[in-house]
Write a structure and sequence with these properties.
about 350 residues, mainly alpha, Ferritin, about 0% strand, binds fe (ii) ion
């Protein structure tokens, strides 16, 4: 069969065949034959609807529409690898690589959560707020990317370190990514396993941690590019925190006893995971090599001395303690028992956690 030429096609567009109206049935008559489709399955993303139950979330989203900053316009020209020793470069790249286990995973982790807000038919501003968080996390990931690429091109794993400290850093990084992969497996399952109040209590834990970290590093760093980056990321994280709080205000008053118990365990799980960047990784979840801890201390000290803005371990413990106590103040009025966090001197219920239940986001 020969295919139509261009002239035939133009002719068909200009002279469409006439429709006869004689064959059209009457709409009223057709109505007698309608049938309903089968019920919609669980976790589908239809029907689309645009309910607004929490106007505050709509306001937060409106404030988030323009991010107010961009990673590519930070003053990167003031941050030069040549200004630092090799070990200082490795140590700073190391810290941003650790951060990327939390913030670099943000785009994928929040994208999965974003899709879930459609599957569970959340009100429209919840979905839109999650969209803005995905965008923010892509920006945070880019800050990790740019810092690592300036300090160790093709890093973290495609760069060949030349000093013993650099090689220790690379070994530590691989162990962190090993745990990051375990977290991702748990998160993917947890997102559909846990109910909304539990997810958002866990999410709030991560956002409190992130806001705390970036606020303190913004105050401490001496480097203009990171002063600006930490300030803007800290603002984003404070907005993520406000989103979680707005959702929790709706769901916390209606918790069941079982949900309260799960939240207690989730807070402990979140603390254990997030301590990997806020403080030091506890042994409950983290699988680390034999040289990890002493190497980690050396690398943090070197990055701190270079001016990156990493607080001392004691200062971090104090900050982390203050942050979790704020969270305790939010949850306890709703009958949620707080878990014991002896690492930072917080008393509470002793709970065992399942590594598969680690689902906080950053
Ligand atoms: Fe983030
Ligand atoms: Fe966040």
């Amino acid at each position: 069969m020969s295919s139509p030429n261009a002239q035939d096609l133009i002719g068909a567009v200009e002279n469409p065949p006439e429709h006869s109206s004689a064959a059209q049935p009457d709409a009223a008559a057709l109505l007698f034959d309608t049938q309903e489709p089968p019920p919609f399955p669980e976790l589908n993303i239809f029907p689309l609807e645009w309910r607004v139950e929490t106007p505050m979330l709509q306001q937060i989203y409106d404030q988030a529409r323009a991010p107010g900053w961009s990673p590519h316009t930070l003053p990167w020209d003031t941050f030069k690898a040549d200004d630092f020793s090799l070990d200082e470069r490795y140590a700073m790249a190391y810290w941003f690589t650790l951060l990327s286990v939390f913030d670099g995973s943000g785009p994928a982790v929040f994208s999965r959560a974003f899709i879930h807000t459609w599957e569970t038919h959340e009100e429209d501003p919840v979905r839109k707020c999650f969209f803005s968080i995905v965008r923010d996390e892509v920006n945070h990931e880019e800050v990790c990317q740019r810092a690592i690429q300036i300090l160790t091109p093709n890093g973290p794993l495609g760069y060949e370190p030349e000093t013993p400290l650099g090689r220790l850093a690379r070994n530590n990084i691989k162990w962190y990514y090993h745990n990051g992969c375990r977290y991702w497996t748990g998160f993917k399952n947890g997102i559909t396993k846990f109910q909304l109040p539990i997810l958002f209590a866990s999410f709030l834990m991560g956002e409190v941690a992130a806001a705390t970290l970036f606020h303190s590093m913004y105050q401490r760093t001496t480097m203009p590019a990171f002063k600006e980056a930490f300030k803007m990321i800290g603002k984003d994280e404070a907005r993520h925190m406000a989103i979680c709080l707005a959702v929790l205000r709706n769901v916390l008053p209606r918790l069941t006893d079982e949900q309260r118990d799960v939240i207690t365990r989730q807070i402990r799980a979140g603390f254990v995971f997030l301590s990997g960047i806020l403080y030091v990784p506890p042994t409950d979840f983290w699988e680390l090599g034999p040289t990890f801890r002493p190497a980690h201390r050396m690398l943090e000290e070197t990055a701190r001395a270079a001016g990156l803005g990493i607080l001392t371990e004691d200062e971090r413990a104090e900050n982390w303690r203050a942050a979790v106590l704020r969270l305790k103040g939010i949850l306890e009025p709703y009958g949620v028992e707080f878990p014991a966090l002896p690492e930072v001197g917080v008393d509470g219920k002793t709970v065992a956690i399942d590594p598969q239940d680690i689902i906080p986001v950053f």
